[in-house]
Design a protein that fits this description.
Strand order of the largest sheet: 3-1-2-4-5
Distance between the termini: 16 Å
Number of helices: 11
Oligomer: single chain
Helix content: 40-55%
Order of helices and strands: EEHHHEEHHHHHEHHH
């Protein structure tokens, strides 16, 4: 739930956790420091010099806030795919909670509220990760001059290279290829129809606001 604002070239980039944010942070950090990468712990928990430098460059962790930029770009992702990716990284790759997927979906707020993991600012880490894209991008899609879907995230790199006149590294985000035509798989795992409907219920405001 962050945005990058550059006054000199009058543009803002908006993103959400697990929706291409790593690519934007990498490009901003590289352009400012000529260093390509840093750990996700530094990104999400504000540890080390990486996060401090990102803030100095104009990167802000906050709820959606309008900027005076002439060009405003939002990067967004299908809410179901984004949920799967977030669940995978917070529950399977890392053990930030220990419930089953079904229990989590049925007790979403309860499980998140019980979490003791915090971001650098003291915010509930799971609340941060599972927040709606509307929280980060706002409810008015017409605010933006461009909205970029997750699978076309590299278009932002091309835009930044043109604006900054600098070559930027290619960042390979997971699950950016189209779904397999035979299985329909695209993410780390699939959901049942009932589970997908529950995710759509949780992220209803994203669907209502066009972030899908």
């Amino acid at each position: 739930m962050s945005y990058f604002f550059e006054e000199d070239n009058s543009f803002s980039l908006y993103e959400s956790p697990k929706a291409g944010s790593e690519a934007i942070r990498t490009w901003v950090y590289y352009a400012g420091s000529a260093t390509e990468n840093a750990s996700t712990d530094e990104y999400y928990f504000g540890q080390g010099k990486t996060f401090a430098q990102l803030q100095e460059f104009g990167y802000t962790d906050a709820k959606f806030l309008a900027t005076p930029a002439k060009t405003k770009i939002a990067l967004y992702r299908d809410p179901v795919e984004r949920f799967i990716s977030t669940f995978y990284v917070t529950r399977i790759s890392n053990k930030f909670f220990d419930t089953t997927l079904d229990y989590f979906l049925e007790n979403f707020d309860e499980v998140i509220d019980a979490s003791t993991h915090k971001t650098y600012s003291g915010e509930n880490y799971l609340r941060y990760m599972f927040s709606t894209q509307t929280y980060s991008l706002g409810s008015d899609k017409s605010y933006y001059t461009d909205t970029v879907p997750y699978r076309k995230y590299d278009a932002i790199r091309l835009y930044l290279e043109k604006v900054w006149s600098v070559g930027l590294p290619t960042v390979q985000l997971p699950n950016v290829k189209p779904p397999c035509t035979f299985t329909g798989h695209v993410c780390e795992f699939d959901l049942t129809t009932r589970q997908k409907n529950k995710v759509k219920e949780i992220y209803a405001e994203d669907y209502n606001n066009g972030w899908f």
